């Protein structure tokens, strides 16, 4: 169903992403080792990747790096993430077991793959070597997908894992492994990977980029019309136009509206959907307080149209009663851009998603 809030996994449920699918296919088949898939939150990156994996059937290991916030940003947490990736598709473990069992510290049982976290022999590079050998034997490409890859920057602790070094090593050593890395916090992803940073292991490495944009107004209307036709609903055109205006072409929010209508069987649910979306966005941006409360002041200022450097600085100094150093404000604004929450247009800072603007008004 087009309005299913879960990530799509088949072409028939993926709306208007044929060009992106072909870009991804060409990148994997003819492009470099690394493909970046970027776009704002809820633009459909995961749906694109999942559909690509199912459509083209390359052997693949899908790793959702967001799980590390629960598992821990450690070697053990990372290995648990890898185990999840293998065990999600039982058939994958069955295909690879003859290769994986060659790695000391790997156990394969009826429930799937397990790692001995204390074993020094279990490493991501040793796993990649076996995946590469499998792909070479079967004359194919093995895909390793990191969803929300910017989360990998937090990996720390004893024997810290720097995923950039492993990818660089793979770039130089392995011939049948390719990486897809997605990111909603686009600036952070680029900063972390460091393709332009001489100090980064990935400096100067060639990569391709697939961008998943929000829908245009016309495509947003078409998305809603197709989705409602699929479930046998016929909403008035003016209702859909209002929805598109409020949700600004973000596929995830549009799907949430359609799903809510389908569940409640009425069209006057926009305010409910907006409230749910704003509450979710507010929960996300409120976490920035752990860095500094100044982030919340900056977002609040921009949300109420105090969006120039001078206005933001004056607003914060008035609210806090303290002088704010220019360098500190620059750092915060740059981070908010890296988080893909705001962008700068003609010397004014604006929100990339209107939902986040409304949420910031409540800070």
UniProtKB/TrEMBL annotation:
Protein keywords: ATP-binding, Nucleotide-binding
UniProt KW Amino-acid biosynthesis keyword: no
Any Pfam family hit: WHD_MCM
Residue intervals of the ATPase domain: 14-254
Boundaries of every MCM C-terminal domain copy: 291-349
A single GO molecular function term of this UniProt record: ATP binding
Keyword ATP-binding carried by entry: yes
PANTHER family in the cross-refs: ATPASE DOMAIN-CONTAINING PROTEIN, DNA-BINDING PROTEIN-RELATED
Name the UniProt record assigns to this protein: ATP-binding protein
Lineage: Archaea, Thermoproteota, Thermoprotei, Desulfurococcales, Desulfurococcaceae
């Amino acid at each position: 169903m087009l309005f299913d809030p879960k990530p799509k996994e088949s072409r028939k449920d993926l709306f208007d992403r044929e060009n992106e699918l072909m870009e991804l296919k060409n990148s994997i088949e003819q492009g470099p080792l690394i493909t970046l898939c970027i776009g704002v939150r809820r633009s459909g990156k995961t749906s694109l990747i999942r559909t690509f994996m199912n459509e083209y059937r390359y052997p693949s290991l899908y790793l959702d790096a967001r799980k590390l916030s629960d598992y821990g940003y450690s070697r053990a947490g990372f290995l648990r993430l890898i185990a999840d990736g293998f065990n999600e598709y039982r058939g994958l473990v069955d295909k690879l077991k003859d290769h994986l069992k060659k790695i000391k510290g790997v156990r394969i049982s009826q429930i799937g793959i397990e790692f001995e976290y204390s074993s020094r022999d279990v490493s991501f590079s040793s796993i990649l070597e076996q995946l590469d050998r499998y792909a070479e034997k079967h004359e194919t490409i093995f895909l390793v997908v990191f969803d929300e890859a910017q989360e990998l920057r937090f990996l720390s602790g004893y024997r810290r894992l720097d995923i950039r070094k492993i990818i660089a090593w793979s770039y130089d050593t392995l011939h049948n492994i390719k990486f897809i890395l997605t990111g909603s916090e686009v600036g952070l992803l680029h900063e972390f990977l460091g393709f332009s940073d001489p100090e980064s292991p990935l400096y100067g490495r060639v990569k391709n980029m697939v961008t998943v944009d929000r829908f245009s107004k016309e495509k947003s209307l078409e998305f809603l019309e197709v989705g409602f036709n699929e479930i046998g609903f016929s909403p008035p055109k003016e209702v859909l136009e209002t929805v598109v205006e409020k949700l600004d072409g973000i596929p995830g929010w549009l799907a949430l509206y359609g799903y809510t209508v389908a569940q409640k069987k009425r069209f006057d649910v926009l305010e409910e959907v907006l409230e749910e979306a704003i509450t979710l966005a507010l929960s996300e941006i409120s976490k920035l307080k752990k860095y500094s409360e100044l982030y919340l002041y900056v977002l609040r200022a921009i949300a109420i149209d105090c969006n120039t450097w001078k206005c933001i600085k004056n607003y914060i100094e008035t609210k806090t009663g303290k002088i704010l150093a220019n360098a500190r404000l620059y750092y915060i604004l740059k981070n908010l851009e890296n988080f893909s929450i705001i962008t700068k247009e003609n010397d004014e800072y604006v929100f990339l998603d209107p939902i986040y603007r409304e949420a910031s008004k409540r800070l």
